[in-house]
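TICKET: design request
STATUS: open
ATTACHED STRUCTURE:
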């Protein structure tokens, strides 16, 4: 009987730049757009930076990059014969985004999926990330090319799923969680954005989008609830003005503790 040869599974992993050092990597995901994924990514980076860690953001939402605007970054990334260098924010957070490479921020990125996925890989392999303790990857919504590329090619230690209170979110979260399970990546937990509005004069909380379903979603998938962000006009204003690093809020403090204890992949 002839010997049956089994083909080894293909290795999609991408090597980190030789001059880079990145200790832990967390991807921020959502099943749909408009739930505040970039906001949560930014707040996480700011929170961990305030705790004394050197943090970085990889803006993997190539066709809809918003991270530079949230931080008020207008300068462009520079490169030399060694590689590409991230732009550093006011408080020392390193970031890379396609908008840091385009001549004009408003230029559209009209690329097909494989080119976009290749760009994200280059953000890992060609950028010189200097002694980063925590890197947060802002992924585009859904389960398409870019999330798949990141999960297959980068050493992601865990994902954070961002949701909103609407009931439809249950199905969408399930998709994101199942994708992570298929890729064998741990889900750190859920963050609910636009959870409530708190009246500044009375302190009364109003559930603008109806009752939250995050508890039942978390229970169904055996996940932790990591934080609930309110609808806060001041927070939106801070993003619009590029001053997210000056904003204060304790909503994600418990998540910072979880990330500190998370095992390295």
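STATUS: resolved
RESOLUTION: sequence designed for all positions
ATTACHED SEQUENCE:
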């Amino acid at each position: 009987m002839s010997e049956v040869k089994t083909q080894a599974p293909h290795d999609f992993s991408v090597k980190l730049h030789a001059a880079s050092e990145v200790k832990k990597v967390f991807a921020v995901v959502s099943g749909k757009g408009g739930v505040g994924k970039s906001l949560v990514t930014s707040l996480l980076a700011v929170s961990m930076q305030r705790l004394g860690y050197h943090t970085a953001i990889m803006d993997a939402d190539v066709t809809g990059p918003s991270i530079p605007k949230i931080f008020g970054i207008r300068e462009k990334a520079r490169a030399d014969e060694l590689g590409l260098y991230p732009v550093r924010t006011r408080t020392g957070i390193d970031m890379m985004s396609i908008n840091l490479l385009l001549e004009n921020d408003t230029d559209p990125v009209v690329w097909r999926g494989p080119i976009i996925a290749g760009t994200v890989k280059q953000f890992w392999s060609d950028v010189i990330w200097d002694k980063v303790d925590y890197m947060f990857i802002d992924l585009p919504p859904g389960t398409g090319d870019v999330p798949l590329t990141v999960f297959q090619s980068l050493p992601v230690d865990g994902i954070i799923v961002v949701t909103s209170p609407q009931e439809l979110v249950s199905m969408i979260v399930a998709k994101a969680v199942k994708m992570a399970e298929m890729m064998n990546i741990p889900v750190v937990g859920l963050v609910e954005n636009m959870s409530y509005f708190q009246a500044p004069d009375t302190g009364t909380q109003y559930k603008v989008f109806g009752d939250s379903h995050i508890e039942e979603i978390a229970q169904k998938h055996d996940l932790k609830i990591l934080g609930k962000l309110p609808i806060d006009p001041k927070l939106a204003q801070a993003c619009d003005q590029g001053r997210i690093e000056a904003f204060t809020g304790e909503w994600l403090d418990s998540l910072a503790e979880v990330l500190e204890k998370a095992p390295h992949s």
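CLOSING REMARK: The longest strand covers residues 22-29. The two ends are 41 Å apart (CA to CA).
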